[in-house]
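Entry for the shared binder. Reason: the reviewer on the internal report wants the predicted structure included alongside the sequence.
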Amino acid sequence: EIEAREKNGPRASRIIIVLCAGENDIGQGYSIDKIIRSFERVVDKCFEFDEIIKVIYLGPKIEPWLTNDPSSRKQYVKLSKSLQRATERHNRKVDLCYVDCLLMFCGESANVPGAVTAKAKAEERYFHKDGLHLSDEGYSIWKEVIEGEIKQTLLVTDT
């Protein structure tokens, strides 16, 4: 890596980090403020390294088990909005991409009025039987979104 930098300049090593966190924190009973402070510390730590050109953060997603837990669902929605605001005010916001995943795995029900608050239902095909972890089909959606963001980032940094 050092030889590559010397030969090709400082842009020879570029790193894009993809993060996903916060859902387990809600389950553990942490406050939204505590989760946001943790998010900000992690992102700040990432940007301490010169090679980091982008941090992509995948927000919380509506999961099948939330259908029967309106309180946790509300916390997920609140967390998603708080993470969006934290991203917008971050001093490296141009290098930080928040991906709103809240309704990403809800199919057609994501398009009905009031979807976020109660009507959208996670489609079970995107999740393992535990109703929490993504299935291969669910991960393929994330993969497509992440690859698109990485391609866009590299187009911008290569010009």
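Summary line for the report: Residues 136-157 form the longest helix (22 residues).
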